[in-house]
Amino acid sequence: MEKVVILGAGGHAREVLWIFEEENRVKPRWEVLGFIDENTVNKGKILCNLPILGDFTWFGKKGSHGVKVISGVGNCRTKLQFAEKAARLGLTFCSVVHPSVLMSDYVEVGEGTLISAGNIITTQVKIGNHVTVNLDCTISHDVVIGDYCTIAPGCHISGSVKFEEGVDFGTGATIIQGQSVGAWSKIGAGAVVHDEIPRNVTAVGVPARIVRRG
């Protein structure tokens, strides 16, 4: 069994735990030890029968050697911060895919990435490091999703789309074939992306229009 700790202790972290539990029902592989929370007042609290172990200093204590980690947060910049902290401590990230996911043998999945239930991912798709693909999304052929992106539930990503790093793609959003979204941009819930979206903007609506820069 591979020991793992989830970074974060909110609602999404509990969903990440559920993915590990579902994988273990198919084939026992993971021993989840608990959660890390930077808010030290939460140390020792119990979530879904597992403890909040403490903050990142826990990794210097007895019992932490050889433990893998994964981000239990959806916020793109928080995932980046966690990855940087983990790198300084020499930690290793794991990835986890819900057993209900349908995807071909021609999908690349980076480290620290999680793919939740109900997703369909076709062929020649590259998903980077520390990516969150939430519930019930479709990702078509030749898509590239950069590091630290979060794809919210119910999204549809057409063929040959490119997301640069840190894209936050809102619940139920859609992007048409061949378009791209620049680094650290946010796409609002229900938006339909018809044209290229530059970096560091927020776009909403049908069709998606930029409403904020920076």
Description of the structure:
This protein has 214 residues and is of the alpha/beta class. The protein folds into two domains: 2-94, 3-Layer(aba) Sandwich (Rossmann fold), CATH 3.40.50.20; 97-203, 3 Solenoid (UDP N-Acetylglucosamine Acyltransferase, domain 1). It has helices at 11-26, 76-88; strands spanning 2-7, 30-36, 46-47, 50-54, 68-71, 92-93, 96-97, 102-103, 107-109, 114-115, 120-121, 125-127, 132-133, 138-139, 144-145, 150-151, 156-157, 162-163, 168-169, 174-175, 180-181, 186-187, 192-193, 201-204, 209-213. An eight-stranded mixed sheet has the order 7-10-13-16-19-22-24-25, covered by helices on one side. It has a six-stranded mixed sheet with strand order 3-4-2-1-5-6. It has a six-stranded parallel sheet with strand order 8-11-14-17-20-23, with no helix packed on it. A hairpin with a 4-residue loop joins strand 24 (201-204) and strand 25. The chain starts with a strand and ends with a strand. The model has no long low-confidence stretch (mean pLDDT 96).
CATH fold group of the largest domain: UDP N-Acetylglucosamine Acyltransferase, domain 1
Query: By helix and strand content, what is the structural category?
Result: alpha/beta
> Globular, elongated, flat, extended or rod-shaped: what is the shape?
globular
* Biggest beta sheet summary: 8 strands, mixed
Q: Reading side by side through the largest sheet, how are the strands ordered?
A: 7-10-13-16-19-22-24-25
